[in-house]
Design a protein that fits this description.
This protein has 363 residues and is an alpha+beta fold. It is 41% helix and 23% strand. The longest helix has 27 residues.
Length: 363
């Protein structure tokens, strides 16, 4: 069964912690739709090739790793829907002991590459690429003195550009007439808008169809003046899905804008995470017996079958996270991974990195 990004991330970390003594760790990528029997035949042929490896220990480890992998693949019968990534090698940390292990995973999206490689490390790059959130939203905050450009990728806000305008305040310098001072400020504002538009072109246009939309915000009318003026490339202007009034600009404004854009981002991961944590925190404040937090309390609740929704911080160590996630699934709980990229996610981290909304009160 295909895995989600959280399990994929843990799987990759496990693989990347392995180091071969020589080029003896075997990585195999089987593309979606490819005949599994052809892969097994190919690996059997590689066993014959491995017999030519000069170093005795490396030779035996590669041959044994391929044998374990072949036996493992025969259990599948056919290639899974999204293909398969398989890894085998000596997992022992002791020089005097050999422990050949095999791991496999069906990725969350179809594999398009076929690969066989022996090296001192496992090849994880194709799996890492699948974890990258390609679709994103452009974020732009604008006020007369400052502008920021960022991206919302999944639940993370990435700051790309922060710029200042240098436009003077409304109090004019001595010796200048009010009309002349106003014209200077207006000219500088136009140039600032052009700089922002150029930066938007540079950051957003290369994203193509992965840019799902742009949200513009800021305090005061400056944002509307820019959007309604003739500054923004029409291709990007067509992507603007909302304009938000904000109290702040700059990097703080980007975060505020995401918080105020839940109507526009209702289907996005960040909104789902924030809503789950808000529900937990609300119950914690009004009916604390219906929630649990911290490993010991949550595990006790899981063993009682009391957990409806299990909230696991991405900051929880992998072994603990997998153990509690498996326990939650066994008892029918919904399992959600919460990033630390939001204020609510950081609150979960501070509460012990794991929490639960219960089906019934246990106090």
């Amino acid at each position: 069964m295909a895995v989600d990004n959280t399990k994929l991330k843990r799987f990759i970390r496990k693989l990347e912690s392995a180091r071969g003594r020589h080029t003896e760790l075997v990585s195999v990528y089987i593309p979606a739709g490819y005949d599994l029997n052809r892969i097994i035949t190919s690996l059997s042929q590689e066993q014959g090739t491995a017999a030519n490896i000069k170093d005795k220990n490396t030779r035996q480890n590669v041959i044994d790793s391929l044998e374990r992998m072949i036996r493992h693949l025969r259990l599948f019968g056919k290639t899974p829907e999204n293909g398969l990534a398989v890894f085998s090698g000596n997992a022992s940390e002791r020089e005097d002991k050999v422990d050949i292990q095999v791991w496999s995973i069906e990725p969350p999206i179809p594999l398009k590459i076929r690969m066989y490689r022996c090296d001192q490390t496992y090849v994880t790059e194709p799996l890492k690429e699948m974890m990258e959130t390609k679709e994103c939203y452009g974020l732009v905050t604008v006020e007369r003195q400052e502008a920021s450009i960022g991206l919302l990728k999944g639940s993370y806000i990435q700051v790309l550009t922060v710029m200042t305008s240098g436009i003077p305040g409304k109090t004019r310098a001595g010796g200048q007439s009010a009309p002349r001072f106003a014209r200077i400020r207006e000219g500088m504002t136009i140039e600032f808008f052009k700089r922002i538009a150029d930066a938007m072109n540079q950051e957003f246009l290369p994203l193509g169809n992965n840019l799902r939309g742009i949200i513009v915000g800021g305090p005061g009318p400056t944002k509307e003046n820019m959007v309604n003026g003739n500054y923004i490339n029409q291709q990007l202007k067509d992507k603007i899905i909302g304009i938000k009034d904000l109290c702040y600009s700059g990097e703080e404004g980007l975060r505020e804008m995401v918080d105020r854009s839940e109507d526009l981002l209702a289907q996005e991961i960040i909104t789902k995470e924030k809503n789950l944590m808000r529900k937990f925190l609300e119950i914690l404040s009004t009916n604390p017996g219906r929630v649990a937090y911290g490993v010991v309390n949550v595990e006790n609740s899981l063993n009682m079958g009391a957990v409806d929704t299990l909230l696991i911080s991405e900051d929880l160590n992998d072994a603990e996270a997998e153990r509690l996630e498996d326990l939650g699934i066994r008892f029918g709980a919904k399992v959600e991974t919460i990033s630390i990229g939001t204020m609510e996610g950081m609150q979960l981290r501070d509460l012990g990195k794991i929490a639960a909304i219960l089906r019934f009160s246990i106090t």
